[in-house]
């Protein structure tokens, strides 16, 4: 039976062998709901078994633990039912297809030779509690792998939780965020609040928040119940007095037993090498071919598992794609939290081929037959394989086609024999080395494929087809017309889940695809795709094309059913070739400017470091947050410091330094300046030069088309959208982006587009009219809010109005505004209140938008795009953040839609006008062009005309242009 007594002696330091206690029962249900129905060859359901197995392997791969136990519930009844028979009585029975999987999952643990623990009369949580306390008594750190709130009472010095759903550690801070009290008070809070799921009664009418307040005020449940008569609120006082016994019973129910008679000593909970034959035999019975292949690939010559770790290798240690695949099986994070569990859909439009044919095409005759088949089909899935992921540096290795669901081929065009030495290890020598495999040479293959790829009557479908367009364009092949399954998924669920092909195959088709790591290996043994044997390359690449075509059949129906055809057909699909071309253009970068800036920043870093050392009174590593924290809070005795519950070190993040700098602490401002220079140097001036393409002399960023919830493009490799522009040093970086001789850089951006959008979406007549009349919107707002006539407006009053204008649409708080303006929080709050009083339509819009997000899970832009809002159904800080997102997403998303429409129209408009400007970059509301000197004026006028006329939102759009020899001059 649980006792209320706490350990009387201090625990030893947690520096022994870490112990990981896995909540196996929790894993089972998460696995069951993460994967669609799946049967093994004899018809037994095994979707939860497969999910559990993948979860287990991934967990072990990432933890690399020596001591692990998988702990299960035994039977539903346990000692709690002896004194409260209704405990968990209302829980539904497990689904019919899950029941037979419980025993098989226990077999999985045994097949991997891991400790499997369960004990009749006790719950898994009780065993976890007991083992955790025993291990800590031995000086061992403990990690409980679970997201179960009932286990949070165990969090302590040396005991933490790992939430496998969010891949997030849970310590005292996270427990406090959840319950409003420290871990040692969680039981008291749960006893008051009760739990309807487990049928823990609690005190009627008291929730978690109220319970936390009461326990914080009175110290404990017993103290509260003893002094219940002192409570001022009559209703609450009466409930506590009348239900005191229920509260005490509830505490006995929720408190975990820490002295259970464990069936296996804690010292024996170890990870042991599995018996390979037994493991493979068990996997074979389940029909888990993909897992068998991974395990076999890691079997060493002596029959053991290489590095003792089929578990590590099969989970894709070192392979990001494989980790993503298994993470989806582990915790379902690829699915919307509010959505129903994914299942294999039975819709009639989902193709389910009776036979799968994935063939190798290595002759011109066979390729010509596939081209004829594609021309006859009218819709063909196309995919390319390359030796790299950067289009402007990668080489085309092979092409795959699919002409109908289940039928696909792979056409190798530049494979080499895997035994050929890598360049730099003796050099490539095809004369004396191994000959390349039999295949159609690249040039001939493209000649044969061109009539299909360029045929206007054949739709070419790809998944992220932008990459494929670029690979073909490098060889003079213009692929059109095109369709993109990634973007079809994106317009339906932007922000709701991922849109990678592997995830969508699982979500919509119930198919687990071959991972990239399976064919190219991982880590240092990774090979490029041109060295993959043709049988493996064919299985992988042909499947990609096949799955893409199957997804197209599903998603074209879903886009129609979801009423997202207009967004897809007018914005997303026509944008693909525009962005593909823009990336290939690239932007010219001056290495000398980068070098000079890097030297300047290095000198400034040295100067700042010396100044910081003087202020600190000694030398230390300015880049070390730990040492900086010791200087500020241990040695300088500054107030306001906070220590991390996980590391015990002082926090020195930007928010901490900003607060201290605002108080006039010079060293904090100096450190912030030092960090800014260090980031500019490491992120831009030192690395941009390395990212210049040697063939073009330009930097070619990649724009992700389906990465944000709002429809915005995002830039990577390198990220050119995040170059700081609010500081002089950040703006200097743009000096390195220059025009080619005889050209100029032209920057054209929308003026105050988000304010114009919010004025229209919220229906604010005063702001709408101001924009129509061309009035200075910030001066007008200042006049309206602060009752200052326009002819008496000062720059300071206008600055305050500008901060509120832009801050309001991002959900700025009075505290945030006070810091931005350097005023008291109360004064800032009064400004915001006055703003809403003057423009009540805005507050009404915000409340309406939050309600719509909570009801639907998404909000819409003016053009109809859905922006899904994660966390809108949650509570506390997570919900507040989601509500701010809900307010801003339609505004930011509409701005993204508008500039996309302008980008789509501009290439044709420039060509029709005989102008030769090239679009180079899109940075949120700005477009960057390289323009011949003689065409600057005409181009400026045309681009502004197209951007301003991209769409009619009811309020005029205004685009402003700047021109110079560099981006800095033009902006």
TrEMBL record:
<dbReference type="InterPro" id="IPR008918">
    <property type="entry name" value="HhH2"/>
</dbReference>
<keyword id="KW-0808">Transferase</keyword>
<keyword id="KW-0540">Nuclease</keyword>
<keyword id="KW-0548">Nucleotidyltransferase</keyword>
<keyword id="KW-0235">DNA replication</keyword>
<comment type="subunit">
    <text>Single-chain monomer with multiple functions.</text>
</comment>
<dbReference type="InterPro" id="IPR019760">
    <property type="entry name" value="DNA-dir_DNA_pol_A_CS"/>
</dbReference>
<dbReference type="Pfam" id="PF01367">
    <property type="entry name" value="5_3_exonuc"/>
</dbReference>
<dbReference type="Pfam" id="PF00476">
    <property type="entry name" value="DNA_pol_A"/>
</dbReference>
<dbReference type="InterPro" id="IPR043502">
    <property type="entry name" value="DNA/RNA_pol_sf"/>
</dbReference>
<dbReference type="InterPro" id="IPR002298">
    <property type="entry name" value="DNA_polymerase_A"/>
</dbReference>
<keyword id="KW-0227">DNA damage</keyword>
<dbReference type="GO" id="GO:0006261">
    <property type="term" value="P:DNA-templated DNA replication"/>
</dbReference>
<dbReference type="InterPro" id="IPR018320">
    <property type="entry name" value="DNA_polymerase_1"/>
</dbReference>
<dbReference type="Pfam" id="PF01612">
    <property type="entry name" value="DNA_pol_A_exo1"/>
</dbReference>
<keyword id="KW-0378">Hydrolase</keyword>
<comment type="similarity">
    <text>Belongs to the DNA polymerase type-A family.</text>
</comment>
<dbReference type="InterPro" id="IPR002421">
    <property type="entry name" value="5-3_exonuclease"/>
</dbReference>
<dbReference type="InterPro" id="IPR001098">
    <property type="entry name" value="DNA-dir_DNA_pol_A_palm_dom"/>
</dbReference>
<dbReference type="InterPro" id="IPR002562">
    <property type="entry name" value="3'-5'_exonuclease_dom"/>
</dbReference>
<dbReference type="InterPro" id="IPR020045">
    <property type="entry name" value="DNA_polI_H3TH"/>
</dbReference>
<dbReference type="GO" id="GO:0003677">
    <property type="term" value="F:DNA binding"/>
</dbReference>
<comment type="function">
    <text>In addition to polymerase activity, this DNA polymerase exhibits 3'-5' and 5'-3' exonuclease activity.</text>
</comment>
<protein>
    <recommendedName>
        <fullName>DNA polymerase I</fullName>
        <ecNumber>2.7.7.7</ecNumber>
    </recommendedName>
</protein>
<dbReference type="GO" id="GO:0006302">
    <property type="term" value="P:double-strand break repair"/>
</dbReference>
<keyword id="KW-0269">Exonuclease</keyword>
<dbReference type="InterPro" id="IPR036279">
    <property type="entry name" value="5-3_exonuclease_C_sf"/>
</dbReference>
<dbReference type="InterPro" id="IPR012337">
    <property type="entry name" value="RNaseH-like_sf"/>
</dbReference>
<dbReference type="InterPro" id="IPR020046">
    <property type="entry name" value="5-3_exonucl_a-hlix_arch_N"/>
</dbReference>
<keyword id="KW-0234">DNA repair</keyword>
<dbReference type="GO" id="GO:0003887">
    <property type="term" value="F:DNA-directed DNA polymerase activity"/>
</dbReference>
<keyword id="KW-0239">DNA-directed DNA polymerase</keyword>
<dbReference type="GO" id="GO:0008409">
    <property type="term" value="F:5'-3' exonuclease activity"/>
</dbReference>
<dbReference type="Pfam" id="PF02739">
    <property type="entry name" value="5_3_exonuc_N"/>
</dbReference>
<dbReference type="InterPro" id="IPR029060">
    <property type="entry name" value="PIN-like_dom_sf"/>
</dbReference>
<dbReference type="InterPro" id="IPR036397">
    <property type="entry name" value="RNaseH_sf"/>
</dbReference>
<keyword id="KW-0238">DNA-binding</keyword>
<dbReference type="GO" id="GO:0008408">
    <property type="term" value="F:3'-5' exonuclease activity"/>
</dbReference>
